[in-house]
Amino acid sequence: MGVEKKGTMMSELDYTKAQLAFFYIIVLLSLDVLNPVKIFLHVFPAVAPWHVASLAIGCLVYIFIVNMRELLYFSVKVFFHSILSIFFNDIQVVGRENIPEFGPVIFTSNHANQFMDGTMIMCTCQRNISYLMAEKSWKRPIIGHLAWAMGAVPVKRAQDSAIKGSGSVSVDVQCISSETNSEIRVVGRGTKFTAEIKVGDKIRFPKCAQGIKVASIDGDESMSLLVEEGVDDIISSQPFPEYVNYDILPRIDQNDVYQNVLEKLASGGTIGIFPEGGSHDRTDLLPLKVGVALIAYSELIKDGINVPIVPVGLNYFRAHRFRGKATVEYGSPTYIDPSTVAQYKQGGAAKRKVCNELLGRIEDSMRSVIVSVPDYETMQIIHAARRLYRQRGSNETAQQRQDMGRRFAEGYKRLLLQVKGEPPEEWLSLQKRILAYQKELNELGIRDYQVAGLDHEEVEIGDETHGHSTGETVLHRMNVLGHIIHLLFIIILAALPALLLNLPVGLASRLWSNFRRKKALAESKVKIKGYDVMLSERVLCCIVLVPSLWLVYGLALYLFTPLDGPSLAVCFTCFPVFSYWSIMATESGMVDIKDLRPYVFRLIPSTRKRLTALPATRKALRADLIARIRQLGPTLGDLYYSKELNWQKITTETKQLTLSSESSEDVGAAAKKDV
To answer: Is 112 helix (H, G, I), strand (E, B) or coil?
Structure first.
């Protein structure tokens, strides 16, 4: 908290200084007797005004050149602040006190929203961050220019240079089952290993994001792969010993990138890394790349700096839609254990071991700032259960919402481990009821918080119920007439600017983002629906189309109206104001529409009964959920009892329990096989 308070105090002091300086300059410019330039010119009449102006311009140019990087970064940050305020309804930040105020830092984050992730961290962090970004994205127009202004470091990725290998391959199944083998033998059919592949390259099997490193090449149809962590899962996902197609991922020399990064860290800079590699729309982390561990160890060995690795959790709600919400959470830093440096220097298996251990700790720290679950359906259950469990009228902070979501997610995982992945029937029944309730809300187009207002007889507050009279109480409380009047007023205000300034851009950006989503989904091995690229592509489309549309309107006003120069300037200046105003007005109108929707549906016989049944359904569902939590919660220990939790410790324990359970299952399966 100390850093955050200090940062706040400094910003307030700087703001006060800026105000004083601004008004002092206004006074000097308003009165010639106090204007220092006029006084100087009066005392020295040989000096012309343009002499002073030329000197000032020269100083301005010099200052800009010397501080160009900082000024560009600041300008881009202001620009993206404006972008986020338009495209997001609410952004909350948790854990700013965990960001070191000075010195080098490595930020590691989940990658759930393509180009918006870096923007989100940039605008919520007080440090200037240089990101590692894919060279493929660096070469794209607009994106590459903005990335250069932000000081990003382009990285060539193997998957961007992947080529399809000749023929097909299979794996020796006997090598897979042997625990003593450090290599896996691969046989080819119609392959050209010696011509197409080099030692150190990787090959990637169908529907796999991760490649396996080539250890040796014995001929055109025979080679060996190196056994590393996660290889067993990749091999088991393939229909071996059948032959399958494969991609070749060439080995990329990243020495120049590492040197650039190490120089930034040595000078006290900060680096932003997305260790998962590419963005995705999954509900859990992808396997982390080893690059972040190599950078951290290299900096410790080269300059003796144990760089703090700060996890950043980007938690989006309706991430692919306009005016969504987000919570950015900064976790406690992770440091290298200095006693492992000697093993790192040994190279080979010892180096891989300590790097994997550090990656495991980084992964645990990243899980401690997000809500990770196995699949999207489970995520729906977790969010719905959290809303049902929350008491009516309670105002959750972002920290409390994150904490409760993680309690449900981690508790769900541990309960699954306790029952060995086979939940009892009453548990499955409760899950189905929660999903059915959420589906009913989605079909009716209402939110959970609106359900209490549908009950004409009683309204639930906390764990109690309070009697009320009939519809007049509800209508009075919701002020339906006020909503209708406000909605009509908002529609009138928003209609013209929204139609002229925003509607063409909105339709075009929606079509473009959907096109890019389909393309990204077809090219990706890890995306589910490709939602992670939609908002980024929509923003890029708007960056191009919005000023272009303003220029078209400005040109039309100049050519087809009798307006003079000042009037045209005023009109052109008003375009962004009216555009932003219409966005805010439209959003306000949409809120009113959502509030009115339940009352409109009450007039329709087909939906009236469904709406009337919802409060009782929710009440029964909440009671059963609380009863189930009280029954199973004590078996979860600190997750149930403790108010304050060390989430990094909790996620580490959950991972250890998962590994222990998988090991027990493997031993049991092996014993059955022997029998």
So the answer is: coil
Contacts of 49 (CB under 8 A, 6+ apart): 37, 41
Query: What residue segments make up the domains of the chain, in order of their start?
Result: 2-71, 72-157+254-367, 160-249, 376-477+609-664, 479-603
Residues with Cβ within 8 Å of residue 21, at least 6 apart in sequence: none
Can you name the residues that pair with 143 across neighbouring β-strands?
Answer: none
Mean pLDDT across the chain, nearest whole number?
84
Q: What is the sign, positive or negative, of the torsion defined by CA atoms of 335, 340, 344, 350?
A: negative
Around Cβ 568, how many Cβ atoms within 10 Å? 15
> CB–CB of 279/137 below 8 Å?
no
The fold of the 72-157+254-367 domain, in CATH, is Rossmann fold (3.40.50)
Cα 555 vs. chain centroid, distance in angstroms? 39
Closest CA to 459 of 558, 392, 409: 392
Cis peptide before 547 (omega within 30 of 0): no
Which residues are CB-neighbours of 274 under 8 A, at least 6 positions away? 108, 109, 110, 111, 117, 132
Question: How many DSSP H helices and E strands does the chain contain?
Answer: 25, 16
Task: Count CB-CB contacts under 10 A for residue 35.
Answer: 15
Residues with Cβ < 8 Å from 358, sequence gap 6 or more?
Answer: 293, 296, 297, 334, 336, 340
Greater model confidence, 589 or 177: 589
Alpha helices in 561-645 (DSSP H): 565-601, 605-632, 638-641
Residues 6+ apart with CB under 8 A from 110: 117, 274, 276, 285, 312, 313, 314, 366, 370
With contact defined as beta carbons under 8 Å apart, do 103 and 299 qualify?
A: no
Q: Does the fold of domain 160-249 match that of domain 72-157+254-367? A: no
Those residues with Cβ within 8 angstroms of residue 230's Cβ, 6 or more apart along the chain or in another chain? 210, 287
Question: What is the DSSP-derived secondary structure letter of residue 289?
Answer: P
Is residue 379 within a helix (H) or strand (E), and if so which, with residue range? helix 376-389
For 586-598, b/e burial (b = at least 16 CB within 10 A) is bebbeebeebebb
Distance from C-alpha of 184 to C-alpha of 174, rounded to nearest angstrom: 9
What residues form DSSP beta bridges with 244? 169
pLDDT, tens only, 356-406: 999 999 999 999 999 998 888 899 999 999 999 987 767 778 888 899 999
The C-alpha atoms of residue 117 and residue 580 are separated, in whole angstroms, by 23
Beta strands in 406-467 (DSSP E): 458-461, 464-467
Residue 17's Cβ-count burial label (10 Å; 0-12, 13-18, 19+) is: exposed
Instruction: Give pLDDT tens digits for 506-516.
Output: 899 999 999 99
Q: Evaluate whether 137 touches 539 at the Cβ level (below 8 Å).
A: no
Spatial neighbors of 467 by CB under 8 A, at least 6 apart, are 457, 458
Q: Which long-range contacts (CB under 8 A, 24 or more apart) does 385-388 make?
A: 385/434, 385/625, 387/448, 387/449, 388/434, 388/448, 388/618, 388/621, 388/622, 388/625
Q: How far apart are CA 538 and CA 502, in angstroms?
A: 13
Residues 6+ apart with CB under 8 A from 165: 191, 196, 197, 203, 245, 246, 247, 248
Side by side, the strands of the sheet bearing 168-171 are 163-164, 247-249, 202-204, 212-219, 222-226, 183-189, 168-171
At the topology level, CATH places domain 160-249 in: Elongation Factor Tu (Ef-tu); domain 3 (2.40.30)
